[in-house]
Amino acid sequence: MGNTDAMRNTLFGKPEKIKSGIVVDCSCTGGNPGTVECRGLDLSTGEIVFDEMIGLATNNIGEWLAIAYGANYITEKKIKVPLFSDSKICINWYNKQQAKTNIFRDYPHIASQNKNLIPLLEEAQQIIELCRVEIKWWDKYLYGENPADYGRK
């Protein structure tokens, strides 16, 4: 990994330091779908502002929920900072205000194995409709590794 970082720094320069905002990410262990959790981190303090266990879901669902929880956090705290995510798919969903997921068609067993998932998705949809914040893509080549990453790669 060190060689990759050195090569990136040679090609692109050192990553830019972002000093404020909420950055979100998720972890999906045991495959995809798998056990999902998501969290958000305040870039100005390094504090983890939420960390949620979702249970059985897909990586994209975890990223989507992380964005919803991050938007909710920013709105509730009445702070004027951007929300960062490294998921272009879920940023697109956020901008269109709807998750374009086929999780229950592609993985019909998930709804019966994670009874909390449908209510979580319904809650996230309400949050996304109510909490409109500036959202930006976390480009690891510009900013370095996502600080909210769980480090389980």
Stretches with pLDDT under 50, minimum 5 residues: none
Derived from helix and strand composition plus strand pairing, the structural class reads: alpha/beta
**What is the ordering of alpha helices and beta strands?**
HEEEHEHHHHEH
- Numbering strands along the chain, what is their spatial order in the largest sheet? 3-2-1-4-5
Report the end-to-end length measured between terminal Cα atoms.
12 Å
Average pLDDT level: 91
Q: Based on DSSP secondary structure assignment, what is the total number of beta strands?
A: 5
How much helical structure, as a percent, in the residues?
A: 40-55%
Main pleated sheet: 5 strands, mixed
Shape: globular
Strand content: 15-25%
Radius of gyration: 16 Å
Count of helical stretches: 7
Keywords:
five-stranded mixed beta sheet
Structure overview:
The chain is α/β, with parallel strands linked by helices and 153 residues long. The chain has seven helices and five strands. The protein has a five-stranded mixed sheet with strand order 3-2-1-4-5, with helices on one face. A hairpin with a 5-residue loop joins strand 2 (34-42) and strand 3 (48-57). Helix 2 crosses helix 6. The radius of gyration is 16 Å and the shape is globular. 33% of the residues are buried. The mean pLDDT is 91.
